[in-house]
Amino acid sequence: MRITWITDDKSAASVVEYGTSSGRYESVAQGESTSYDYMFYSSGKIHHTVIGPLEHDTVYFYRCGGDGQEFQLKTPPAQFPVTFAVAGDLGQTGWTKSTLDHIDQCKYDVHLLPGDLSYANYVQRKWDTFGELVQPLASARPWMVTEGNHEKEIIPFISSGFESYNARWKMPYEESGSSSNLYYSFEVAGIHLIMLGSYTDYDEYSDQYRWLKADLLKVDRKKTPWLVVLFHVPWYNSNKAHQGEGDHMMAAMEPLLYAASVDIAIAGHVHAYERSKRVNNGRPDPCGAVHITIGDGGNGEGLARKYLNPQPEWSEFREASFGHGELKMVNSTHAFWSWHRNDDDEPVRSDQVWINSLVSSGCVAEKGHELRKILLEP
Fold first, then answer.
1. What pTM, to 2 d.p., does this model score?
2. Which of 89, 155, 208, 258 is the most exposed place for a label (fewest CB within 10 A)?
């Protein structure tokens, strides 16, 4: 597990002490640190320290820098069931706080965030206040994120983009053979998760495309029967907001994901909720992915309330309300997805569906030859 924290004290050590009893730290790990300057802002010292190896499904107590507050985290389980909390486009508003409060009430193992974290929009101090806002949750469970458009913060001739995001939110890209923090993969229990970048090159000549092919080749569906992908800009979107923005990435990458029998694709960007049937190439397909848009985490831009009518055949449920999703992988064949509005009590499920894995439906076996052909071609 990588622990990331920021100190104003530039001499603070990048050390994490940890153990399974409060106040008793049997282990210590030394990490690395970085910092960055952005216009007239200088960040604090950003520490990244990997602790472990850790036991699965275990509570650890830890403190950073040799003193100060004790935190506790719970590691994910090694086997099913495993539950993901899912919310994108968070920002830092009263709505965001409501989303986080709702998530805090659900029993989950890992938080998935498909882009648009702080909505700092160049104001670097807002990256700090976002960290303070999410700390109660992000210190207790793994937060796995990918970038959105609000992470770009490009200034021509000064900043090439993603400077704050890459410095603060370091994901396991090197560990998964990626050359960029903007796309990577990881595994939890029996799920292989791929985090793609909507805002870095994705055509068939790009590093990301080559990396994706190589990563898909490594997936063993006997070990990880579920395959889940996250990216920021939705490919299936019947909201009037951001119409067609994902088309180019979809044209490049959907054939790969379809050949690999991806079970579920999760996106943000559109500030509303939508769930598709299993779909591929614009049409319902029993061997396609279920696409979910969950960009309704609470950002200050408000909700995207206008939809295209009639509702497309592939679209199963859509609503413009703030909320979060919960994805419970019950076993190797069945998952339960539910969407929870902030306006309701946390246990209320406004949308819910059981999802059968493509391994269990025979799609993976059916497409095995097609997959190897597309992945092995130059």
1. 0.97
2. 155
